[in-house]
Specification:
Growth Hormone, Chain: A, 383 residues, mainly alpha
Amino acid sequence: MPSWFRAALALFAVGWGANQFAALLPVYREVDGATAGQVTALFGAYAVGLVPALLLVAPVSDRIGRGRVLRPVLVLSFVATVVLMVGGHSLTLLLVGRLLAGVASGAAFAPGTAWVKELSDAAPGTGARRAAIALSAGFGTGPLVTGVLAQWAPAPTLLPYVPHLVLTVAVAVLLRPAPEPDPDDVATSDPDAATLRQVLGSRRFLTQVVPTAPWVFGTATLAFATLPAVVDVPGPAYALVGALVFLTLGTGVALQPYGRRLATGVTLAVGMGAGVAGFGVGALAATTGASWLVVPACMLLGTAYGFVLVAGLRTVETITPARDLATVNAVFYSLTYVGFAAPYLATLLLSWLDGTQTMLLLAGLTAASALVALAGRRTSATR
């Protein structure tokens, strides 16, 4: 087994643990009687643990090694799942489990991605793609499996978590022989504070990255966490949510290579346009009751997820010196994970608006963000 594949499996396992909760949102509503606001808040709490870990752990792994960070993180991911299992009927324990899952994810993503890149001998860019695919595959496969088990296995708040425990143990064993890179090959220079302030305060970052980055996961999470709440889709509810997660994220991953072939501005415009269209189709589904429209809506929102992510990363790479790229990327990813709060905010909107109005408002907000970003891009181009 190639060494890079062992590190990629760790990302897959942590990604699985991070997003397996998504398919269980209707379970906690129906079995435990939790409100829609409570379960979407629990879902979004993941980002509260993730963002600080993402920003703090990456430089630590530069100093002590990727494996010394990633191996304990697998243990933390395991513990987070155990807490979710034990806390199936306790909102407090579920909150703790989601926060721990967020910390594990934030601590794993940057070191894990760097490790896969360092262990990949192929052409430049191959390692980053491998890491992204492994992580996204975990994000999508975890909910698919948990949704199926919640639907047809007993104990829907308990048994769906078991596969992640088994997977994590297996990956921990496989990860042990993975070599650490030569310390001389790892860039450990501290980022330049003045340069960071210049990049993060630049017109391109503030007008192109900041308004659009939250829509990376905002579009994706709204697809599978909010659309089923505004459109009555017949069939096995738990398995359906898992399938929608897989469809949304799978579409984004499948289309990302096409986004990379386009100019950055075009990629961003297509991605944000797909988001507007996805919410528009969602509004049509809510108005007509045509449940089949949920499928193209999720595919459009998945396209937005994939394209806006690619455009954001390319913009950051363009405006950031190499020595500061890891830090600015961490800030960018932190902004993308703000999108995990979107389903909770949508739940608040649904207490005032109907499904059609909520989807149209989301389409309008997406369009406004796109206009700000594209106007900022034109302004930057003329300077």
